Amino acid sequence: MSDGEKKVAIQTSRFGTIEAPEEKGISISGGLLGFPESTRYLMLDHDQDSPFKWLQSMDEGEVAFVVTDPLVFFPEYQVQIRKDELAGLQIEDGDTPMVFVILSLAAEPENMTANLQGPIIINARTRIGRQVVLKDSEYKTKHPLFAQTA
Q: Can you list the domains of the chain with their CATH numbers?
């Protein structure tokens, strides 16, 4: 981190005080569904080699979500997004948006689910994101993360 970077300190309920460069923040206009007041987030690694990350609100320290790249667990997952939904992300030719889904944790890890119907799309270049709702899709808000065995 260079001396010229403006840092922000966030008091969180899970991680204590986090200090991060302000430009590492992800701006999610309108917030996530159910959390309209939280519009700035940090993406934090869960563990070094883990497919899971934390999307920590910079506005409300108690708001954080476990997220993952859906293709790790659902290789056939496809997101069809209308152009008007992408407009605010400032995606240009050559930009590859990042896609994450929010996970619902369970007492038993094998019962975790992924919200494939409401992915979060982030432009890595501009650090602008938004959650979209995939209407008329086969995806649900609670897809089992791990294959169920008989």
A: 7-144 (2.30.290.10)
Contact 101, 116 (CB under 8 A): yes
| pTM metric for this prediction | 0.89
* Burial grade of 146 (CB within 10 A; 0-12, 13-18, 19 or more): exposed
Q: What is the pLDDT of residues 15-52, one digit of tens each?
A: 999 998 988 999 998 899 999 999 999 999 888 889 99
Q: Using only C-alpha atoms, what is the Rg of the chain?
A: 16
Detail the DSSP E strand segments found in the chain.
7-12, 16-21, 26-28, 40-45, 52-57, 64-68, 98-104, 113-114, 120-123, 128-131, 143-144
Tokens of 17: 């005080």
Structure tokens at 56: 């920590």
